[in-house]
Amino acid sequence: xxxxxxxxxxxxxxTETIPSVRSVSIGAWIHTxxxxxxxxxxxxxxxxxxxxxxxxxxxxxxxxxxRMENVGGYLNAxxxxxxxxxxxxxxxxxxxxxxxxxxxxxLTPVFPERELERExxxxxxxxxxxxxxxxxRVFDILDETLFPDHPMGRxxxxxxxxxxxxSRSTLMDFMALTYTHDRIVIAAAGNVSHSKLVQHxxxxxxxxxxxxxxRHIGSDPIPDAxxxxxxxxxxxxxxxxxxxxxxxxxxxxxxxxxxxxxTLLGGGMSSRLNQNIRERYGYCYNIYSFINMHSDTGDxxxxxxxxxxxxxxxxxxxxxxxxxxxxxxxxGRMLERARSQVKGGIMLGLESMGSRMMRIGRQELYYGxxxxxxxxxxxxxxxxxxxxxxxxxxxxxxxxFSTVRILPTS
Length: 410
Known about the structure:
Shape: globular
CATH architecture of the largest domain: 2-Layer Sandwich
Helix content: 40-55%
Largest sheet: 6 strands, mixed
Structural class: alpha+beta
Number of strands: 11
Mean pLDDT: 94
Low-confidence stretches: none
C-alpha cells in the first residue's frame, strides 16, 4: 500500500507498506545534485554527503557510525547528477532510530574544521581511484563530450581544485540554499506505519526553519553539442571503448520502448551485442548497452573493453548491430522475450525493501506520484514492434554518436 503526506513545512513523506516483512528501509532524498552546482562549487553535493557523517549538533562522528550498526542496521548515502540520498536499513522495531538518524544528518551537521581538511584528502584519493579505473574514466569523458560547458558534463565528485577550495561556510551556505523543505522527500518501504512515520518526521523537523531556495537551481539550459571523437592514452593493457549520444528524459513517453530496446541490444548473455561480438568474434569479456534518464535529458550508449588492435572493428560491429535494429522490426518473439526480461528485473527487485524505497523516492522526485507495479507492467506490455522500431530509427544514426577511447600507451 502506498501513502503520501505533505507536511505543513513542505517536506513530502511517502511510504510503501509491506506487512509481511520485518525490516524497513528509509531514505532522506534531496532534489539537489551535481547539476545544481556552479563551476566553482563542482563537487559540493558529494563533499557535503561525506561531511554530514563527521558530526552533528546531536552526535559525534563515531556515534553516527555506530548508531545503526549497534542494532544490526545499515547507514549510507550517495550523490547523483540530480539528487542526493541518505538512507538506513533496519528491523522495523528500530524505525524511530532510523528516522532520527537520517534526518539528523541533513538537518544539523556541524562540518568540523579538522575533519573537513582531512576529508578533502579522502575525496581526492577517491578521485584518483576513479581516474585510475579506465572503466569509470571513459564514462566521465563521455559526459564531458555529450554535455560540454554544462554541469551535467562535470564529474559528480568535482575536481581537486574545487574540493581544495571548500570552506565550512561554503558548504553551510550551499546546504542552506539547496537542502530546503520543498526539495526534501522522506521515503520508506517495509513493515512501516505511514501515520507513525509522519509523526517521527514531524518531530525531526520541528525546529528546522529552512525556506525555499532563492536561487533557481539546476535550470541552466543544455546547449546543443556536435558529436565528438576523443582518444586518451594510459599505461593499461586493455582498450576501453564507448559510443554514446543524448537520448530521452524520464518524462518522455518513449522511455519504456527505449528500455526494452536497450535490453534487446545489450541486456544479458542473450543480448545481440553479447552474442554477436563476444560469442561470435571473441572480442571482449564485457560488453553492454546502457541508458541514463534525467529530468530534461538522458543518454544512451554501448561500452566494451577489448584489445587495442580490435577497437576500430569492434566499433564498426557496434554500429552494425544498431543498424540492424533500424532497418527492420524485431520479431514478436524477441519483443516478448525482452518484455519478460524487463518485467522480471523489476519484480525481482521488489523483493528488496531498499529497492522499493529507492523506487518510490525517485518517482516522487521526478513525477510527484507513484506508479503501481500493475501500471508499470501495463506500460511495458503496451510497447509495440513499431514503437521499438521508431526509437531505433530516431536514435541509432551513427552520425549522432560520440566516441571515446582509452587506449594503452604503445
